[in-house]
Amino acid sequence: MQTDIWVAIVIAALGTYALRAVPLVWTQRHFNRRKGGNNEAHLPMWLSVLGPLMIAAMLGTSLIPKVPTEASWLATVVGSLVTALMWRKFRTLGLPVLVGVLAFGLALVVFT
Model's pTM, two decimal places? Predict the structure, then answer.
């Protein structure tokens, strides 16, 4: 690969890491400051509102198939239903996402 592609990959990786690390470090420092003053530490109100909104926005954009065909829409519905059912049963994040992605892929192969 060319050098400029590797530079772009490294910049994207560092940006992705920063998007996750900066809020974590900020929240930990916020909690530690509150603990030092014997105050009860709470998540900031803006974080409790923006967090679910950002997750809903990502969900909305990821549910629309890249190529809107009948097969892709059916596979999206199957994957979403399987993910929701698995989450309802296990109440975790990893296993439902894994099984939902597998169901989406299998449904896409079957319906195509």
Answer: 0.55
